Structure formats: C-alpha cells, structure tokens
Amino acid sequence: MKQGLSLRVSQHLALTPQLQQSIRLLQLSTLEMAQEVEQMLDENPFLERGDEQAEREAFGLDQQDAPVATGERIAEVASSAGEAEAAGGDEVEASLDGGGSIEESWEGDGTVDVSPDDAEWGGDAPARGAGGQDDDAPTATELASATVSLQEHLHEQARCLRLTPEEQAALYFLIESLNEDGYLDEPLDGLARDFWCQMYPGQGEPDLEAQEEAQAHLRMALGWLHSMEPIGVGARDLRECLKLQILELRNSPEARAALALCEQPLELMAKRDVRRLMAACGLDAEAVRAGLALINRLEPKPGRRFADAERNVIVPDVIVTRAGRGFKVQLNPDVMPRLRVQDTYANAMRQGRGEGHAAMQQRLQEARWFIKNIQQRFDTILRVSSAIVERQRNFFMHGELAMRPLVLREIADELGLHESTISRVTTAKYMATPFGTYELKYFFGSSLGTETGGNASSTAVRALLKQFIAAEEPSKPLSDNQLSDLLKEQGIECARRTVAKYREALRIAPANLRKAL
Questions:
Q1: Co-location of 242 and 221 in the same domain
Q2: Does residue 109 lie in a domain region?
Q3: Is there a single domain that holds both residue 259 and residue 345?
C-alpha cells in the first residue's frame, strides 16, 4: 500500500456557541426569555441589570405571605384540637443549586477592557420601577396573581362555618383537592387514605377503622362543600354537578323535568334527542324541551370563572398604534431587559493574569455575546413585525375580514432571512393591535381561490363563517353545505369539508346541536 498526501476542499457548517445561543434566544417566549435572563444574571458575575436595586432579605417580613404546603396546613388545622404531635414540626429547607461549568468555548479577542459595545442595552426603555414611573403601581402579572382563586373563595366561606378542627381539616383537604373546573377527580376512599396520611404523618398506612373514620369526616365535609358557592363545586362528575345546581332552583315543573333528564345518558341530552328522552322519562315534548332549556343555562364547570381569572396574562412583545395615516410599530419596553457588563469586574481583569484568568475571560466574553444576542433577538422581532404590518395593512384598518393570504416564505424573502427563522420569531410572540392582542402566527394563513381569480385568506374566511353563524336563525341553523353556498355567493370557492374544518377550528357546534329547542 502506497502512502501519500493530498489536499481536498469541502464545506461544512459549524454552529458556534454564540450562534447556538442566538437561535435558542430567538425561539423563546417572553416568560422563557425572562427566566433565561435571570439564570444568566445568577451564573455570570460580569452581567448586571441597569439601575440595579438591592436584593431583599431572604427571610423576614417579605416571607410572611409565602404559600404553605397543603399537608402542613392540614396538620396545622388539626393541631388546634390538641394534636400537636400529629402535625409535626419538621422545618422546610430550601436549597438552590447555583453555578455551572462552562461547557462551550466563548473565545474572544483576548481583550478585557470595557468596549463601547459593553454599554447598557435597552437604555431607551424605562427600567421597571425606575425613574418617571410609579414604583408602587402593580404590574399586569401582579394584578393577575392578586385575583381570588377558587380555593381562596371557598376558604373564605369555610371560615364562616362553625366546624370542629377535624371537620375544618377535612373541608380544607377537599377544597385543595379540587381541579381547576371545581370537580373532585378521585373517589372518596382514595382521598380518605391521603387525608389520614397527611393528618398523621409518619404513622404508615391507615388500618380499616382509621380509613372508615377518615371517610366519614370527608363525607360530612363534602356536604358542606356542596352547599358553597359556586353551586356544583365538589361534584364527582357532570351529572352530579348538574343535579346540585337544579336542586338549588325552585321546585318547578322545569326543574323536575331537568332532574329526570339527568338520570338518562348524557349523550341523549348532548344530541337533544327529544323523542328518546320522551320515551325514557315519560314526559311530553314540551316538558323535555323546557328541561333541556334549563340544563342549557347551567354551568358545567363551576370553577371556570376562577380559572379564567387566573389564566396567564399575555404580555405583547410588539405594540402597533395608529400614527396619522399609517401605523407605528415598536417593541414593548416592559419585556426588554436592561443589561450591561459589570464595569468593576471587567476593569479588574486588566490588573493581573493569575490563576483562573482564562476562565474569567470566557465569562466576560459570554456576557458580551449574551447582550448582543438579546439585542439581535428584539431587532429581528421588530423587523418581522414591521413587515407583517406592511403586508396586512388592511387588517389593521378594517379587521380580520380584510386579512390577506400570507406565508412565511414571503416575509423571509423580503427580509433576507431563512423561513425557519421567521417560524421561530412568530412562535409564542404577541402583537398588540387596535383590534386586540394576537400571536404573530395569526397573521399567516393559506389562500382560497375566488371567482375573480384572486385569493382570500383562510383567516378572513373563518371570520366570515362566524358572521354567518352569528346571524343565522336559531330555529333553523345553517348546515355546512349552506355555509359553503353562502361563501360561493361571496365569490369564495370553499368546499363543505373545508367549511367543517374551519367550523371545528372555531369550536362551533354542527347545525343539529346549534338548533334552538
């Protein structure tokens, strides 16, 4: 075998740590971005916020509102009856894992001086709680967290009841076991075991007598829970939830008919099968329709309004406002972190090159690249948002009916970016418009052909379907075929199957379920 040397030219793509971080930051949502910034501030000593405020003490008055675990609260309630030994006095210790090894290389140019690029980024955005703003004014997140939850609402009512400590503990346990809809997912026998274990921690599994005693406490507490507002809370299934609400109504013929209907399979009520319900309940058609109308007014999810109040608040990344005849697109200053390189530490790097100097230099370069990548992230979001506003100008003037077809490739070609980059930018990023707050992906949609040879956006078609259905006669709802014909009258070619797909995406029931009784 003959050995020799040869030259070969090839191309390959290498993702540097800087590029990997840039891609990762680009696809993060606002909440994830804030978490990433907090993590980097904890790990990198060269990175700091602008107008940094002193941290609060870890313990003290600020800790008085810290949430207490359910088991500890139940044990605390039980201890008031003289069972302090069952409550336990174990202290809860919290440990924070800090620090991390640098696995990638953040090789810089070898300099440690503070460069002009190390200046604070986001200086145009007012810092949270700083200069010119009311420091005591609550933020949107604080307002959302201040909303009363379902459990808090029930606990307020429980405090007005005269219960023994054991009954209070059982009622507290049931309230904390509710799901977000206000239902008890687990049977009482399973809950009784968990209740006993939390009442008497460290005593192993309960015996048969203890299990029955715990079940008796929970059954009594369940009766108290069923009497609370909202009516229907604490139900084990939909049938029980409806019955609890019907029993609170007056003993009218409609209520009696509704109770009889609740004993039948729920599928018959969902399909509004009046004939089969008449035969099963022994009622006439008028009574069945009256009972169904009453059931239709009930709340199938008692905790819905509390869950809606606790939903995550969407903070827009971009704000679009009218400016004369056009529109102004700007980044939301509340989501832009103000970061800068720590001057003191960076200048101290020039004083010596002792042990650990190379690792500290990597940290300094990492902080610089993090600031640059954040700036690039927001610059890209602003560029893409501006292009979307320019393309969807009719939407911002007339609403969703004026939405035009738009695909990711159009924005990518206009900005000179890759289509995957546009996809990352438009995912979990939101834009506040005069018509509401929308995800950036909302402005993209496929096209449907028209009689004139043009294209109509699928978003506009869905909006048109909502208008048709909202204006329909309740006793004669429009079928998918009729909706398809109405779209054809508007010059839009849309098949019945496509209409059904759009209707289901809008969470609108079919015609037979929309029909009024």
A1: no
A2: no
A3: no
Q: What angle do CA 102, 364, 338 make, to 5 degrees?
A: 110
Is residue 76 a part of any domain in this protein? no
Nearest CA among 434, 439, 459 for reference residue 385: 439
Q: What average pLDDT does this structure show over 202-211?
A: 74
CATH number at residue 466: 1.10.10.60
- pLDDT level of residue 382 (50, 70, 90 thresholds): very high
- Per-residue pLDDT band for 262 (boundaries 50, 70, 90) equals confident
What is the per-residue pLDDT across 278-289, written as a single tens digit (0 to 9) for each? 888 888 888 888
Q: Are residues 439 and 451 in the same domain?
A: no
> Residue 437 and residue 252: Cα distance in Å, rounded?
45
Q: Which residues contact 449 (CB under 8 A, 6 or more apart)?
A: 455, 456, 492, 493
**Rounded-to-integer distance, Cα 364 and Cα 44, Å:** 8
451 with 438, same domain? no
Please calculate the CA angle 180-185-190 and round it to the nearest 5 degrees.
135
438 and 452 inside one domain: no
Domain carrying residue 454: 447-514
Q: Which long-range contacts (CB under 8 A, 24 or more apart) does 396-399 make?
A: 396/320, 396/327, 396/433, 396/434, 396/435, 399/435, 399/463
Q: Which two tokens stand for residue 189?
A: 């026998």
Cβ within 8 Å of residue 81, ≥6 positions away: 164, 165, 166
CB atoms < 10 A from the CB of 351, how many? Answer: 8
Query: Looking up tokens 């299990």, which residue turns up?
Result: 211
Give me the mean pLDDT over the 209-226 stretch.
84
Say if residues 295 and 266 touch (Cβ distance below 8 Å): no
Phi then psi for 431, rounded to 5 degrees?
Answer: -125, 125
| Residue 242 backbone dihedrals phi, psi, to 5 degrees | -65, -40
Buried b (16+ CB within 10 A) or exposed e, 84-119: eebbeeeeeeeeeeeeeeeeeebeeeeebebeeebe
The string of pLDDT tens digits covering residues 77-131 is: 454 444 433 334 443 333 323 344 434 555 554 454 555 555 555 554 444 333 3
Ramachandran sector of residue 224 (left: φ over 0; alpha: ψ -120 to 50; beta: rest): alpha
Decide: pTM greater than 0.70.
no
**243-245-249 Cα angle (round to 5):** 110
